[in-house]
Amino acid sequence: MTTNGQQKRPQIRKKDLSLWQLSYIPEIIKGMFLTFKQILRPKFTRQYPEEHWTPPSSYRGRPVLVEEDGVERCVACGLCARVCPALAIEVQASETEELAKERYPERFEINMLRCIFCGFCEEACPEEAIVMSNEYELVFSNQEDAIFGKEKLLMTTEQLKERLEFLKESR
Amino acid sequence: MSTRTLEEPVRSRILSALEDQDTTVTLDPLENKMVLNMGPQHPATHGVLRLLVRLDGETVTGCVPELGYLHRGYEKIAENSTYHEFIPHTDRLDYLSPLANNVGYVLAVEKLLGLEVPERAQYIRVLCCEMARIASHLVAAGTMAMDVGALTVLLWTFREREKLMDIYDVLTGARFTTSYTRIGGLAQDWTPPATEMLKTFLGEFERDLAEVEQLLYANRIFVDRCENVGLISPQEAVSLGMTGPILRGCGIARDLRKDKPYLVYPDLDFDVITYPEGDALARFYVRMEETKQSARILRQALDKMPAGPIHANETKRVLPRKERIYTRMEELIHDFMLINLGVDPPVGEVYQAIESSKGELGFFLVSDGTANPWRLKIRTPSTANLGALPVMVKGGMISDIVVVIGSIDPVMGEADK
């Protein structure tokens, strides 16, 4: 720890101001010039509801279940429910003989009021069955609607193509 | 006048006034001393900070900051979650620089586990820390200027910050709740689009910051409002445990990046900014100059960043790569074990601090060998820095409180934890 060991850095204090600057007239002119200059700049804001934003493929939107050949990939191992820091996921496993896999989720629910969109479920999943989509507009009118079951969570691989490719490259 | 010398009815009136946050009580109309509650819902308190102020006319004779309105019990939550599960919670500590908190936390866990991350990951973490510092200082400078009446500056600094937020989005997948770092690595690699965006940002940043400087530096109103306001001596600053721009604004060159180097900071060239005056204006200058130093670090780190892996090669402690989980049994087992049971740290204690934008952000971990920390103490700079508020505002005007809070730049998510 050194005290005052640094070189002097520029700063303007009251004593450094000239009488002309103290009169505030140059500041008004300068301020007006700088502010009006902004009008000529390209617009930085977006008119949101009319102008939609397309998220990049790395974006973590709402988590969804991947549907392949009409059935979910999920084997109900429960790893996503375990890793979820917000305890938003509930999985109820069941056995099946009709499908290629032995287990499937009889019930799969994500409470979207609890979900914090951290993407840990996607990271933990050993089957690439739960991924973060690019959907960010979530509206519910009551608490029951916010609990998404399988019917709301399933999304086909075509819909999720971009995200699945991103995951293949980056993870 | 101390409350001990007061007779009982006056004393009880003071105490009841302190308890009720909605009252303003004038104790003696002739002496005109009153207790004022500022906040918790006050536009200048930067969050839910409540100040109890005793006034003599318009002069502040005493001040007690009341913290805890945003207390969410993060230290206790940590005791009941695995080391991995706590990462998203660190986003929400200092919500103006989530990436720096992510880095600080995982550095502490890695120190406990004895993990060393590859050089590329260290460079990316440096980039994260410095982007977070710029974003946080921009908000600090903007809000402080807004508090003294220069609203334009806030909009301009937020525009600059927005560009950084877009980079976070491409890099981490979220603008705000980044959760980017992992124990022994990162969630995903740094990408070429992020490099491009950061280069564009750095190309324009200093030009746009110069506009802010032109608007404020020789501005008499701004200088008048900030000069000799919130004065604190270096001795007081050290004894109150202040860190970060406030300490450097008192002329003490304490910067953990230099004094206790972590990551790859020794390989990077930058200056520690100090100003000797110790007032609000000096702190403002420290922040503005520090953003330029951070931009310098970002440029160097982009050039020096090597190619290579971003995860430590420790299969039992670092989450395995996805394509190996899908194809190999061993990695699949590791995935299940790490998620279900967590890492197995040795018994012990570690303290790891980083220089976050507000000061020394330290994580003190006590491990009993299980997957959950036995205790996690978060040493947050905002809490310590707010302790200096009574010293800074005493003897000043009531309108100076606003400037002093702006110059301390507290983030209540971090102060209350």
How would you describe this structure to a colleague?
The complex is a heterodimer of chains A (171) and B (417). Chain A has helices spanning 19-22, 25-37, 79-83, 120-124, 150-153, 161-170, and strands at 63-68, 71-72, 89-95, 103-111, 130-132, 147-148, 154-156. Chain A is an alpha+beta fold. Chain A has a domain at 63-170: Alpha-Beta Plaits, CATH 3.30.70.3270. In chain A, strands 1, 2, 5 and 7 form a four-stranded mixed beta sheet that branches. Chain A has a three-stranded antiparallel beta sheet with strand order 3-4-6. Chain B is α+β, with helices and mostly antiparallel strands and 417 residues long. Chain B has a single domain (74-416), classed as Cytochrome-c3 Hydrogenase, chain B (Orthogonal Bundle). Chain B contains 18 helices and nine strands. Chain B has helices at residues 8-19, 74-79, 87-91, 98-113, 119-147, 151-172, 192-216, 220-226, 234-239, 245-248, 256-259, 280-304, 322-327, 329-341, 381-386, 389-393, 398-408, 412-416; strands at residues 25-28, 33-38, 50-56, 59-66, 181-182, 185-186, 348-355, 360-367, 375-379. Chain B has a four-stranded antiparallel beta sheet with strand order 1-2-3-4. In chain B, strands 7-8-9 form a three-stranded antiparallel beta sheet. A two-stranded antiparallel ribbon of chain B has the order 5-6. In chain B, strand 3 and strand 4 form a beta hairpin. The longest helix of chain B has 29 residues, at 119-147. The radius of gyration of chain B is 23 Å and the shape is globular. Chains A and B meet through helix 2, helix 3, helix 4 and helix 6 of A and helix 3, helix 6, helix 7, helix 8 and helix 12 of B.
Number of helices of chain A: 6
Kindly report the greatest chain-chain contact and the residue count on each side: A-B, 48 and 62 residues
The level-1 CATH class of chain B:
Mainly Alpha
The CATH architecture of the domain at 63-170 in chain A is 2-Layer Sandwich
